[in-house]
Amino acid sequence: MKWYDKYLQIYNRPFAEVPADVRQAIRQGYAKANAEAPVVSVIAIAHNESERILACLWSLIDNECKYPKELLIVDDDSDDGMAEELASLGVRTVFEKRRSPGYARQAGLDAAKGKYCVCVDADTIYPPHYIETMADAVVPEKYSCAYGLWSFLTDEQISPLQIKVYEAMRDVYLYVQHLRRPELNVRGMVFSFKTDLARKYGFRNDIIRGEDGTLALNLKQDGRIRFVRSRRVRPVTSNSILKVQGTSLWDEVVHRIKKGTRGLTALLFSAKKYEDRADNMIGNK
Fold first, then answer.
1. Which pLDDT does position 26 carry in this prediction?
2. Is 228 in a helix, a strand, or coil?
3. Structure pTM?
């Protein structure tokens, strides 16, 4: 039995189909999980994630953490009834009407009370020591932020073996990329940082992707980026991103190998800035 099987029972299920006892457990667990004076702020951004956010929230509530914490949900202009569902469970929600991951993550950062922030995504399920381990990673003064790896859920289209092979290849590439350009590895679903340092720079809100890596790049001025390799911080998430480039996982592997090969020499050198791509600017879409 996998650690996340418990949460999969309500993953991709409408709120009305979530058993009443599970909703009650989430309601009670959430109330107990939030401290009046948190040291760690756990921030989940969500846009129309009514069928997945409860599984995410349940896994975070079950986390074992030595630090007082708060769990914040940022509703990024959802219109699927998610806000009403969360309100019925007493969940603290921050509302952001300007739609983009950058705006949503910034809203969470602005609302955070903790000394450390741990970022999560609402379509992702987190292991039982995720919060504590990611917070521990940025306590030392020499680190300004930290990130980890993630795994994908399987389904009828993508087998466990395919996922395992893909992730092994991807992880090797990320290990190499971390040596000189760790900011390119950072994803908001597995990201933590010191709150005060992050507020110096803030999240970019004019780009479609990369607001997390851009913040990490800025934070390099204040400390090192830590790569947390432990499986204690390795969540599982939807595999939908693997189906974007083609009709099979192999198509995606080939696409990413070609993309990575084109920029292979760049991995030998650090970077202080990156040029914006026109197709990644929000105003161009």
1. 97
2. strand
3. 0.92
